[in-house]
Amino acid sequence: MEFKVTRNPNPTPASEREEIIANPVFGAKLTDHQVVVVWEKDKGWHSAEVIPYGPIMMDPSAAVLHYGQEIFEGIKAYRHQDGSIWTFRPEANAARLQRSARRMALPELPAEIFVESLRQLIAVDGAWVPTPEGEKTLYFRPFEIAAENFLGVRAAQRAEYRVIASPVGPYFTGGVKPVSIWIALDSARAGKHGTGEAKTGGNYAASLLAQQVGYENGCSQVMFLDAETSTYIEELGGMNLFFVYRDGHVATPSLDGTILHGITRDSVITLMRDRGIEVQERKVSLDEVREGVKTGDIVEVFACGTAAVITPVGTLKSSVEEIVIGGNEPGRLTVEMRMELTGIQYGIRPDRHNWMLKLAD
C-alpha cells in the first residue's frame, strides 16, 4: 500500500519544537502530521495518507460516538546514540490491535500496514524524536474508530485507522521512585467474557471513577480485583503487575480474558526466564499479597507497561488498609529489569531476541 503524503504547510517552528522536546509532558503536544487509512466493507483498506495534524471532521451520527467501537495502541520510537530511530516489538502491537479489532467487531489492520504507518509518520516527523537523555521518547498512538454515519446497532461498515504522536518523558516523574496504588474494592474494570483483554476505550472509562478516588487518596494508579469474587488481583488501570518472592520466584496474574496482553509484561517475563528466574502466571489473591508482605515472603512489587516501562510499587492502599512493600524502596530485581529493558530499547544493551526495528537512519 502506497501512502500519499501531504506535508503540513505550517509546521511547528524548530525553536518551539526543541522547547517542547526538552521538557515533554505526556500527551500534551502532538507532532505536525497524522496517518489515516480508510476501510470500507466493499473495498477493504484503502486511501493511505500522511496529512497535517488537525481535527477529525465527524458526523454526529458516527457509530463510534454512539456504540463505542474503537481500539488503540501505545508504542514508542527511540533515538539511539548514532541518531537512528527505532521502535520496540511493533509486530506484537500489530497483533494485539488485530485481536482488539476482532473483539470489538472492527476490521483487522494488516501488520505490514501497521508497521509502515509508523515509518511514514517518522519520515515526516522524525525531528520530533528526542535524544535519549532522561528516558525521552516519541509516543505513537495508533487507533481505529467506527466511522460510518448510521444509528443502527450493528458493526460499522466504514472505519478509520489513524496514528498520532507526542514527545514524552517518564510517565511517573521523580525517577525510579515507588508509587502508591489504590485498591478498588467496589469497582471492577472488566468482567468474564467481556472486553477486558481488548485495548478499547470503554475499559479505561470504567477505571476512571476509581482512579479519581485513588488520586484523592494520594495514589498514582488503581489496582482492580476480579469482578466475580473481588478476590484475585487483575491489573492496574493501564499496567500489569508482578510480585517478587523471597525464594526468588516471581508471580503475575494469568491472562484469563479480562487482563490486557501487555507487551512489556511479555518482554519482562522473557527477560526474567533468560536469567533462570521462575515466573508463575497464575491467580494471585489480595489475601496472598497481604500475608506475603506481612511475613516477608513478598519482597518486591512492580508494575509495567509501554508508557511507564517498569515502575516499583511501594504501597497498596484502600479504604480499610495500607500495605507497605519493601520499606517503600525500589527492589533490586525491579531496578535491574528496568535497566535491562530500557537498555535494549535505547540500543545500549544486546537485543538477543531481535525486538528492535529500525524506522529511520
Distinctive features:
26% helix; alpha+beta; D-amino Acid Aminotransferase, Chain A, domain 2; nine-stranded mixed β-sheet; 361 residues; single chain; D-amino Acid Aminotransferase, Chain A, domain 1
CATH architecture assignment name of the largest domain: Alpha-Beta Barrel
Query: What would the CATH topology of the largest domain be?
Result: D-amino Acid Aminotransferase, Chain A, domain 2
Estimate the mean pLDDT confidence. Answer: 96
Number of strands: 18
Q: Overall 3D geometry?
A: globular
Bin the helical content: 25-40%
**Name of the CATH homologous superfamily of the largest domain:** D-amino Acid Aminotransferase, subunit A, domain 2
Could you tell me the strand content as a percent range?
25-35%
Please report the distance between the alpha carbons of the first and last residues.
Answer: 22 Å
Major sheet, described briefly?
A: 9 strands, mixed
Order of helices and strands: EHEEHEEEHHEEEHEEEEHEHEEEHE
CATH class of the largest domain: Alpha Beta
Q: What is the number of domains?
A: 2
Q: Total helix count?
A: 8
Low-confidence parts lasting 5 or more residues at pLDDT below 50? none
Radius of gyration: 21 Å
Structural class: alpha+beta
